Amino acid sequence: MASYCFLVFALCASQTLSITIESVPSADVGGVILTELETTVSLVCRSNRFEDEEAELVWLRNGAKVALKEGNRQGQSTVCITPVIHQDNGATFTCHMGGNASVEASVTLNVTYPPTLSGSEEVWVEDASPLFLQCDTFSNPPVSSVHWTFNGSTLDLLAGGFTIAEDGYYSRLSANKAEKSKHEGLYRCVADSPVYGIKSKDFLVTVTVFAEKTVKFPLMPIIAGVVVVCLTTILAIFSRWDRIVKCCK
Ligand SMILES: *[C@@H]1O[C@H](CO)[C@@H](O)[C@H](O)[C@H]1NC(C)=O
Ligand SMILES: *[C@@H]1O[C@H](CO)[C@@H](O)[C@H](O)[C@H]1NC(C)=O
Ligand SMILES: *[C@@H]1O[C@H](CO)[C@@H](O)[C@H](O)[C@H]1NC(C)=O
């Protein structure tokens, strides 16, 4: 009796149309695949009706149909995401039966990436001009904290007249009027990522004062001079064109 029940159950189960997605890397129980930028994710969708020639499969990425090659639709269908990019974060891939969209399975990508903070940059700012430093804190998962240091100690916002603005993408440090005595030195932007740890970027700021400004190249007069020389040359060639052409013959 028990085996009979089991047999009936097995028959019913085999006849219920269903779809499964297998992935590398594999998804968690909630259907989320944890991955990183520049890697490859492969998804294989299978219906339990290999024998059914009509069992065509359809893949959607965020609701939009994915183009599949001939021979990659019946009974089993593979989709490869390579390389994984920022825009794949949160993207949902759904596979369903061609004839019945309610028979479906889906997975969602969680693409992690660190904030792009590294190295050091030299920054020159003219005396009394605004000082502006920016660091890229965009990452997944979001950084848990961002802070700035100046010459090795915590930045004194009040003393330096600094403002810090953060929007999840950038942390921006600014001061209205740069002063050599107050603002010259080493700034460091430090972000703490729950997955990637501490990342930082240095800015070596030099405040140029008036005396240094005067030794700068007098750019406008140089440009004017070059233009005059060019025009003169062109005119000279023009007026001697006949002779040049003759020479060339
Ligand atoms: C689609 O499949 C579901 C589940 O197997 C079923 O209940 C439903 O009747 C099917 N719809 C059509 C139009 O075949
Ligand atoms: C993505 O993975 C990271 C790292 O495990 C986790 O902190 C974050 O909450 C996940 N995000 C989503 C939307 O699942
Ligand atoms: C910060 O350090 C630099 C280099 O050591 C030094 O020239 C500058 O005066 C320091 N700035 C302040 C405000 O202490």
Brief synopsis:
With 249 residues, the chain is of the alpha+beta class. Helix content is 22%, strand content 41%.
Q: What are the SSEs and their pairings?
A:
Layout: H1 2-15, E1 19-24, E2 32-36, E3 41-47, E4 57-61, E5 64-65, E6 76-81, E7 92-97, E8 100-112, E9 120-126, E10 131-136, E11 145-150, E12 153-154, H2 157-160, E13 162-166, E14 170-175, H3 180-183, E15 185-193, E16 197-208, H4 210-214, H5 219-239, H6 241-248
Parallel strand pairs: 2-8, 9-16
Antiparallel strand pairs: 1-3, 3-6, 4-5, 4-7, 7-8, 10-14, 11-12, 11-15, 13-14, 15-16
Description of the structure:
The chain is α+β, with helices and mostly antiparallel strands. The protein has two domains: 18-112, Immunoglobulins (Immunoglobulin-like, Sandwich); 120-212, Immunoglobulins (Immunoglobulin-like, Sandwich). Helices cover 22% and strands 41% of the residues. It is built from six helices and 16 strands. The chain has helices at 2-15, 157-160, 180-183, 210-214, 219-239, 241-248; strands spanning 19-24, 32-36, 41-47, 57-61, 64-65, 76-81, 92-97, 100-112, 120-126, 131-136, 145-150, 153-154, 162-166, 170-175, 185-193, 197-208. Strands 2-8-7-4-5 form a five-stranded mixed beta sheet, with no helix packed on it. The protein has a five-stranded mixed beta sheet with strand order 9-16-15-11-12. Strands 1-3-6 form a three-stranded antiparallel beta sheet, with no helix packed on it. Strand 13 (162-166) and strand 14 (170-175) form a beta hairpin. Residues 1-13 have low confidence and may be disordered.
